Amino acid sequence: MMERISLRKAYAEALVEEGKNNSDIVVLDADLEKSTMSMLFKQSFPERFFEMGIAEQNMASVSAGLALAGKIPFYNTFAVFATGRAYDQIRCSIAISYANVKICGSSCGLSDFGDGKTHQSIEDANIICTLPNMIVLNPVDAIETKQMVKWMIGYHGPVYIRINRNELPLYTDSGSEFELGKIHSIRKGNDIIIFATGVMVWKSIIAAEILETKGISAEVVNVSTLKPLEKSEIIKYVNGKKAIVVTEEATKIGGLGSTIALMIAGSVSLPFEHVAIQDKFGTSARSYEELLNYFNLGEADIVSAALRALKEI
Amino acid sequence: MTDSQTLGKLNKTAWQLRYDIVEMIGIGNAGHLGGSSSLAELIAVLYFNNMKINKDNPNDPLRDRLILSKGHAALIQYAALCELGFFPRTELKRVKSLGGLLQGHPDMSIPGIEAVTGSLGQGLSIAVGMALAMRLDRKNSRIYVVMGDGEQSEGQIWEAAMAACRFKLDNLTAFIDCNKLQASGTTKEIFEIPNIDKKWQSFGWKVISKVNGHDISQIIDAIEEAIQVKGRPCVILLDTIKGKGFSFAENNPAYHNSTLDETTYYQALRELEMQKMGSK
Fold first, then answer.
1. Are strands A192-196 and A218-222 parallel, antiparallel or unpaired?
2. Which residue of B has its CA nearest to A64?
């Protein structure tokens, strides 16, 4: 069993670490600091932590004001509220203004498995990707999360980062640095390319191992920058493969699958399978993996998709 | 008491701002004449009497800031920034044109504009963020925010009102342009908000009400009083006339965002000319 580490803890620890060197970093939360773990920053720098109460729209615009006056605000709450509840505030106060606000959508995707459809966010990254000026990041593990936080502070502009609620295996090289838009191969292979993001990298790696036993060599890449994504980065991994699978823990409409399909349409003619949520809201479950399987996002679903793409079933 | 020389200067400035609004709208184009002209005296006082700003260093970290939360009144802010020299007069005639500097609503690309506004209800929150930043940095800058009376139905304003009080932001002064009209009619018939002063009081704000928003002296006195308030923010309720200065537009809901035709355009200029003569 691979070691699994909490992404939210890594995120908050990175904030504290960076906060030591940069007094402009300020953190806001909407009464979920225990859950998002931004309380670690609160404990270290109480004067730079702002409890905004359960008022996400105000929190988003206040963050814009802080940024426009020279601060580097990170605002935190569940992904569904960070984006959906404050959509127009992100649009007008933050994105149009190009305000240097960092938005942390915690408990993203189905990772808050128990709380059900109101708290599970299947569309947050999709909608934020539609906004000009926004960068959207989806880290694969705790190491990449820390690297991304560091990168976000060095970048002047609005960024949305999604943070999984659960402990996930480590894939990122701890000696590397995050590069925006760069796709990394986690597992090499020759027959099929699996573009995966977030928790689905883990699931895709397991699927690739199963495919190996069937004599199929699958390459799994980590697409942790959802926006901006360059066609050249995608094509690099498509070349020489017989089929493409995209896996994401998000609604199939307007997400990574659509982005990649549109990007390569007309220049690549390969079978294409998409493992994503089928236009449905979430539901409560007792475990994360149980829920991923229920929405056909498990390793078995990825294996099936790969076999379909290769016309082997 | 403000000396008569200052009053005369600021009244002249307010007149000039109204003149610029008419210039910007021109003949055959639409513009928010009503809600811009109701703010002429306040904007004249803020930009030409109270605020520390410098056109040669628009990003001076020690400057005061004005957020026009009712962003549709952009024309009055553009007029002031132009008169202060933030951009050339030639831009006024190109307002809202493709390729022009001046957008339909305030945009960060325009020198002197501090925030993107226009989607109502967000300005006070942005101002709260700026006021917090000023306090963290121990800067003495003041943050001013101007809201509309129709805008008060936006829920986010009340989230921000609670936050400003919780954080004891006495470096923040808000104004409500009570011109009693909004896009679709009178505030009374569209969405009446009774006891607006008591609402702000109950949210913990110092409220200065019944200030004649077209009386420079009263506006200056109210701001002086607001600045003295410690430990909490202050809101000034300005009693104003929408379309002030243009008889055909005063208290007329049709001039929220309207086109001036040849007749009304020249009438507006004639009335401005008469006001100028009357003040001499």
1. parallel
2. B126
